[in-house]
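S.,

As promised, the pyridoxal-5'-phosphate run. Input:
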Amino acid sequence: MENRSIPYGPTYEEMLHPSKMDEETKAKAVKAKEDEFDKHNLFNINWRNENNEVNKIVLPKELTGIDANIVVMLGSYFPSGSHKVGPAYSTLIEGCVHGDILPGEKTILGPSTGNFGIGVSYICNLMGYDAIVIMPDNMSKERYENISRYGAKLDLTPGTESDVILTLERTYELMKNPENHSLAQFELLPNYRFHRHVTGNSAIEAVKGIGNGRIACFTSAPGSAGTLAAGDQIKAVFPEAKIAALEPYECSTLSNGGRGQHRIEGIGDKMCTLIHNVITTDFVVLIEDEDCVKGLKIIHDGTDILVESGVDPEIAKQMIPLFGVSGICNILGAIKMAKHLNLGVDDNVLTIATDGFNRYDSVLEELDKRSLETSHNVLKRWFGDVFMEADTNRIFDFRTPERKQQLFDQKEKDWIPFGYKKEYLDTMKDMSFWDNEYNKIEEIDVQIKAMRKDL
Ligand SMILES: Cc1ncc(COP(=O)(O)O)c(C=O)c1O
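Predicted complex:
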């Protein structure tokens, strides 16, 4: 393969500020957008458009029914179609920097429910590694197609989103072979570093000029809980900001240890992940999976209803490709939290759309079959139920010591069986653990640059 032995790509700082890259690299990155298999797309792993602005949409109030501004950062513009490529790249490049991963000598494992797997497959293609994605066998078919298209092999374990623990067990088994190296998104801190630095600081920039220019609340539904780390940076800059972790009502592991199957792909994985900084999680909110799928249907197929309800037709059209099911979950969480916190016109709630609609056709086909009828009247009723009348039930305040302990306990229950020591988990109970991990970025960036020079 031509690009074997090219473990190079952007630093964390360049992912946050691509404008800091040298002119030659910038030009190569722009050109690479014409061919997704061009390795210089590594330098397009960032939240920005060609004008260096963060990709985002401020949702129309005729959709949200609230005064506060909901600002959604759009992950679908990342190479490979979701921001999960960021943690995949960051974990791989840190492994290269530390000398753990040499192209041609290691096969990369990507335990995933899909999007991280797509990111791993894509990154390994650009950087010249063989890859295996380990994931449940009942996810939407678009995910398997994308992973295979980018070249990784699939190793499927039984179940759906909430059976991720089986994929972890399988990954641990494969790791007994020293030729394998896992980009363990649920455990490794490059995922935390990417989102705290790149997503968090991009979020702070995204609200400039909107409302009071601050962030009152950040909502994110954890899969690996990487995205939630953006909240740590948001809080560092806006100490009043509240962080709400959203989970499926059908799989309420963080709220009350509940476990069950659900339809919000990418989140609600029946665990408190190792990299979830529970210290900064202020609220846990339960969202019904069917509301998310119906909400997606309305945005995708209900443009006329949105327009009838006062949404600008251009914006209604613009929104069609922007969200997946978990994006709608994040938006519903944002609406609920704005109501719960009584936020007004000056306040901003920031949230994330991890990917876009293009991996969810099959999910809407399934909804159509299940619903018997999705006529104009039915969709109009759903629009009211899902968005306008979003309620503030099932919002739990996790700022008390008892609730924090509950999350620490959940983490121990989930990770001690995988060999982690209680003493190590205890170090995560102090914010200094997370700040130390975050502060490693400076040194890692120096090493990434040094490695690039050696090529
Ligand atoms: C569609 C989708 N939404 C949300 C998430 C959750 O993001 P994170 O893993 O950063 O918590 C994922 C993770 O894979 C995802 O694929």
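The domain at 56-78+195-397 is CATH 3.40.50.1100 (Rossmann fold). The mean pLDDT is 95.

- D.
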